[in-house]
């Protein structure tokens, strides 16, 4: 199986075992992917399948669904809930939960409205106070879990009610504050669009990064006498991704274009993805979610990891609340109420982050929120009442959790975590 | 490092020296006046019945419990092992019975857990190379270090756990019942591994219920009974001698069977 080039004459460290199948090139990568999927390591498959299904169904009922401007609106709507879902991924990775994210986002939008509009403080102070409240609440949840062993399910359920009460309290009897339409915050949430050239540039960047880091990995691994992996796989990955992103950018630019707000969300997803996969902190998160006792014995400060996860979750929820306020141009009693909580958790789970801890990725927030928003958007186009929308969204969440559980059982029986 | 001849007294430098270790939990005396020496390149087996105090002694050395009285000398210096981290810093690594591996992470991630290279930009390539080198040194048969630990067999998991404890290059490594849950072939694999760890010059403390395993690899066998030293044997000690020391009774099922055997053959027991 060795190729004839001289540097592969010596057996690579990771290919010394003859029992191991060599997966080389694109065919090998595909074969490995199919194997993983069959054993229950589904990754992004259910989401992509779901998105395609949703698009086909809704478009066949109402062609407006697929129109560029509708998709632009969909992305505007997705950013706020997506940001909340990104925080949910952090706590789900530990096998914990935060049920107060909806209230937290509502409180954050109320804080911005009260401080900025009612009290006349500068906007950054309002946003800063909202985010600081998120940090504080994360600290409280982390402290309750670390100090008293209070299950996050209960502490955040209590937080849900308490935060909602505080939101109603600071909004006062009027219950609603309108944010000025001309302000940068509302323009960011409703109007601001990337210039065409910029959206195309942004669409190319991930492909370039994949090729560069792929080349670097291949060089390093070859130098370290490990099987280097194949350049063709890297190029294929980068090519497919770049083509898809360019196509998406082109299509959106047929309408209004790519919202800055969505760009901000994707940027944060990418930063969290790096943090989860390439830093010691991220590795510790997965370790604590997989086996907290093992992590503790390895010298990982489990309490600090838990605290960091809850802080991130509440802070992202607060940031999502600010974006939601910008999107709606108002801070009201309804902000963060209703289905926000469930939508954010559902997005993370639908995207492939396990409720049982130790499995997931930052991308699940992005993909999951697209599914959730697509369903919500499609049902709105059908003029369905919110009662039906709730039922259908609930059903989709149930299906997602069933898929997660089945995949987990399948992984267990195939000897994968 | 040549393999230590079982008949000879241990040659390596004295690493660990316990004198007069006692531990009481309330009114219960779990250990009293325990002595234990561990040299470099030596496998010391710690055997004893349930409740003999093996686990308590391991936990004292691992820094989980503190001894009530007694001294621990490590490398010629008297030390206190206040917590697990201190034990690791001294160079005492412990592989607990439940292994404590993260099944959702791959072998490399488990080996380096808590000690990753370059925390802000994990150096996966270097970690993988070091993982392979360590596993090769131990002649461990792990097909791929990029598979999650969940896909490994019991023996392979034990191997990963032992390899992880070696990563920080400890002087003494304690193995708590490493073969308890393993089949025949896997047990042999782990016993081979213990010999290789010894050949690397580490001192090994092996806790086991299984007399066969103990006699297969141990240079010295320390028997505990009801929290006290009940004898130190060479690796060549017979099964009967060990059982007698462990149970504290000359009269037991093993000795009776032996006696029956002698009567039946009319031969003489050496």
Automatic annotation (TrEMBL), chain A:
<keyword id="KW-0762">Sugar transport</keyword>
<keyword id="KW-1003">Cell membrane</keyword>
<dbReference type="InterPro" id="IPR001851">
    <property type="entry name" value="ABC_transp_permease"/>
</dbReference>
<feature type="transmembrane region" description="Helical">
    <location>
        <begin position="307"/>
        <end position="328"/>
    </location>
</feature>
<feature type="transmembrane region" description="Helical">
    <location>
        <begin position="157"/>
        <end position="177"/>
    </location>
</feature>
<feature type="transmembrane region" description="Helical">
    <location>
        <begin position="365"/>
        <end position="382"/>
    </location>
</feature>
<feature type="transmembrane region" description="Helical">
    <location>
        <begin position="230"/>
        <end position="252"/>
    </location>
</feature>
<feature type="transmembrane region" description="Helical">
    <location>
        <begin position="71"/>
        <end position="94"/>
    </location>
</feature>
<feature type="transmembrane region" description="Helical">
    <location>
        <begin position="258"/>
        <end position="276"/>
    </location>
</feature>
<keyword id="KW-0813">Transport</keyword>
<feature type="transmembrane region" description="Helical">
    <location>
        <begin position="101"/>
        <end position="119"/>
    </location>
</feature>
<feature type="transmembrane region" description="Helical">
    <location>
        <begin position="42"/>
        <end position="65"/>
    </location>
</feature>
<comment type="function">
    <text>Part of the binding-protein-dependent transport system for D-xylose. Probably responsible for the translocation of the substrate across the membrane.</text>
</comment>
<keyword id="KW-0997">Cell inner membrane</keyword>
<feature type="transmembrane region" description="Helical">
    <location>
        <begin position="125"/>
        <end position="145"/>
    </location>
</feature>
<keyword id="KW-0472">Membrane</keyword>
<keyword id="KW-1133">Transmembrane helix</keyword>
<dbReference type="Pfam" id="PF02653">
    <property type="entry name" value="BPD_transp_2"/>
</dbReference>
<feature type="transmembrane region" description="Helical">
    <location>
        <begin position="197"/>
        <end position="218"/>
    </location>
</feature>
<keyword id="KW-0812">Transmembrane</keyword>
<protein>
    <recommendedName>
        <fullName>Xylose transport system permease protein XylH</fullName>
    </recommendedName>
</protein>
UniProtKB/TrEMBL annotation, chain B:
<protein>
    <submittedName>
        <fullName>ABC transporter ATP-binding protein</fullName>
    </submittedName>
</protein>
<feature type="domain" description="ABC transporter">
    <location>
        <begin position="16"/>
        <end position="251"/>
    </location>
</feature>
<keyword id="KW-0067">ATP-binding</keyword>
<dbReference type="InterPro" id="IPR003593">
    <property type="entry name" value="AAA+_ATPase"/>
</dbReference>
<dbReference type="InterPro" id="IPR050107">
    <property type="entry name" value="ABC_carbohydrate_import_ATPase"/>
</dbReference>
<dbReference type="GO" id="GO:0005524">
    <property type="term" value="F:ATP binding"/>
</dbReference>
<dbReference type="InterPro" id="IPR027417">
    <property type="entry name" value="P-loop_NTPase"/>
</dbReference>
<dbReference type="InterPro" id="IPR003439">
    <property type="entry name" value="ABC_transporter-like_ATP-bd"/>
</dbReference>
<dbReference type="Pfam" id="PF00005">
    <property type="entry name" value="ABC_tran"/>
</dbReference>
<keyword id="KW-0547">Nucleotide-binding</keyword>
């Amino acid at each position: 199986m060795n190729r004839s080039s001289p540097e592969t004459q010596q057996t690579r460290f990771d290919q010394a075992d003859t029992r191991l199948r060599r997966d080389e090139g694109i065919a090998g990568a595909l074969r490995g992917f199919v194997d993983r999927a069959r054993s229950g390591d589904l990754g992004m498959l259910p989401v992509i399948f779901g998105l395609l299904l949703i698009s086909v169904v809704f478009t066949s009922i109402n062609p407006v669904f697929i129109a560029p401007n509708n998709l632009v609106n969909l992305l505007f709507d997705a950013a706020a809930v997506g940001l909340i879902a990104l925080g949910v991924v952090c706590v789900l990775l530990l096998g914990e939960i935060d049920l107060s994210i909806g209230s937290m986002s509502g409180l954050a939008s109320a804080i911005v409205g009260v401080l900025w509009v009612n009290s006349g403080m500068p906007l950054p102070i309002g946003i800063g106070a909202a985010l600081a409240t998120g940090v504080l609440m994360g600290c409280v949840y982390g402290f309750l879990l670390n100090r008293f062993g209070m299950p996050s399910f209960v502490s955040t359920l209590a937080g849900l009610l308490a935060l909602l009460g505080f939101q109603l309290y600071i909004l006062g009897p009027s219950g609603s504050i309108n944010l000025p339409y001309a302000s940068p915050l509302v323009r960011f949430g409703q109007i601001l669009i990337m210039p065409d050239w910029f959206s195309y540039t942004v669409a190319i960047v991930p492909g370039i990064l994949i090729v560069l880091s792929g080349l670097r990995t291949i060089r390093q691994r070859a130098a370290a006498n490990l099987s280097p992996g194949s350049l063709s796989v890297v190029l294929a990955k980068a090519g497919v991704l770049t083509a898809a992103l360019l196509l998406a950018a082109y299509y959106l630019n047929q309408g209004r274009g790519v919202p800055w707000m969505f760009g901000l969300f994707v940027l944060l997803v990418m930063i969290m993805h790096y943090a989860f996969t390439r830093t010691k902190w991220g590795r510790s998160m997965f370790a604590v979610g997989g086996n907290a006792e093992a992590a503790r014995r390895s010298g990982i400060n489990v309490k600090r990891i838990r605290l960091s996860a809850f802080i991130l979750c509440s802070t992202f929820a607060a940031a999502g609340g600010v974006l939601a306020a910008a999107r709606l141009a108002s801070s009201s009693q309804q902000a963060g109420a209703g289905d926000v909580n469930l939508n954010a958790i559902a997005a993370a789970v639908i995207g492939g982050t396990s409720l049982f801890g130790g499995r997931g990725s930052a991308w699940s927030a992005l993909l999951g929120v697209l599914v959730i928003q697509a369903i919500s958007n499609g049902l709105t186009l059908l003029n369905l009442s919110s009662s039906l929308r709730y039922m259908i969204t609930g059903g989709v969440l149930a299906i997602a959790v069933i898929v997660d559980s089945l995949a987990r059982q399948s992984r267990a029986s195939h000897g994968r975590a | 490092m040549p393999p230590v001849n079982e008949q000879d007294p241990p040659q390596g430098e004295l690493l660990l020296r316990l004198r007069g270790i006692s531990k009481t939990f309330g009114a219960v005396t779990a250990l009293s006046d325990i002595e234990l020496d561990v040299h470099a390149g030596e496998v010391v087996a710690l055997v004893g019945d349930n409740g003999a105090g093996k686990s308590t002694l391991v936990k004292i050395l691992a820094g989980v419990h503190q001894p009530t009285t007694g001294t621990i000398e490590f490398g010629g210096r008297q030390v206190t092992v206040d917590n697990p981290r201190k034990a690791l810093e001294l160079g005492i690594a412990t592989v607990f019975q439940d292994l404590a591996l993260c099944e959702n992470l791959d072998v490399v991630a488990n080996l380096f857990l808590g000690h990753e290279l370059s925390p802000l930009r994990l150096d996966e390539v270097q970690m993988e190379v070091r993982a392979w080198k360590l596993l090769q040194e131990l002649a461990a048969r792990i097909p791929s270090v990029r598979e999650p630990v969940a896909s490994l067999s019991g023996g392979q998991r034990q191997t990963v756990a032992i390899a992880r404890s070696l990563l920080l290059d400890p002087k003494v490594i304690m193995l708590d019942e490493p073969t308890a849950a393993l089949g025949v072939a896997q047990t042999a694999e782990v016993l081979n591994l213990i010999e290789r760890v010894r050949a690397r010059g580490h001192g090994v403390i092996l806790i086991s219920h299984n007399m066969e395993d103990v006699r297969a690899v141990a240079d010295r066998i320390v028997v505990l009974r009801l929290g006290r030293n009940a004898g130190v044997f060479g690796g060549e000690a017979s099964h009967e001698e060990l059982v007698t020391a462990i149970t504290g009774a000359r009269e037991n099922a093993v000795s009776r069977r032996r006696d029956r055997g002698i009567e039946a053959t009319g031969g003489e027991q050496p």
